[in-house]
Design a protein that fits this description.
212 residues, alpha/beta, Rossmann fold, methyltransferase
């Protein structure tokens, strides 16, 4: 199982390295269609942060070139940020982009090296390439376990939705059932779970809030 996961992550890393090489440090470089859509996703995901919070830590799993750090820095005065990515090229780009910023650091890894108040994963469950539904679902749940284990107050993630228009769905992408994942998170991780499916994109965001 571990070898299968390692091979899967190598495939995903190669896919995103190709996107970065083609489009650079832009939304398209992490396989989003626009900066506006990327910004909207960050807004949904960051609803996991308690209202009025400041001085918190956050792990960004699948950080790409670190766009979320820019987003956070524009809204909070004290954030301790860790970006994690399985693409070495992405981590190199992130380190260069954010050089000298004491509030952020980046590591080339599959999981954070320390727990944080919050964990976020944006877009990492979308591109399954040639993997089967079963393989991808196992990867997804294993990664959610990582988010749970390394987040003290809660975590958030997004997925493409199975409610997407059939004629626009691609075979190399994974479209998750939001109801199944909501149920999984309620039963496995926390009592307080929110499903956001009302922000105009063919996807959804789930917020998992842990008991204080």
């Amino acid at each position: 199982m571990q070898n299968d996961r390692s091979e899967l992550l190598v495939e995903v890393a190669g896919y995103y390295a190709t996107k970065l090489a083609a489009y650079g440090e832009t939304a398209r470089g992490v396989d989003w269609s626009s900066e506006a859509g990327q910004h909207l996703r960050f807004e949904q995901l960051c609803r996991i942060v308690n209202e009025g919070a400041d001085g918190f830590s956050l792990n960004d799993l699948g950080c790409g070139y670190g766009a979320l750090l820019d987003f956070l820095s524009g809204r909070y005065t004290r954030v301790s940020y860790l970006g994690v990515d399985v693409s070495e090229e992405m981590i190199q780009a992130a380190c260069a982009r954010h050089q000298g910023r004491a509030e952020g650091r980046f590591i080339f890894a599959a999981r954070p090296d320390a727990p944080a108040d919050y964990g976020i994963a944006s877009g990492i469950f979308n591109v399954r390439l040639d993997r089967t539904n079963t393989e991808w679902q196992n990867y997804l749940q294993t990664t959610l376990d990582v988010l749970h284990e390394t987040s003290r107050q809660g975590f958030a993630f997004n997925c493409l939705t199975s409610y997407s228009d059939a004629d626009k769905m691609r075979s190399d992408l994974y479209y998750a059932d939001p109801c199944e994942l909501f149920d999984l998170c309620k039963r496995r991780y926390a009592r307080n779970v929110a499903l956001l499916h009302d922000y105009g994109l063919y996807e959804f965001t789930i917020l998992v809030r842990k008991d204080s």
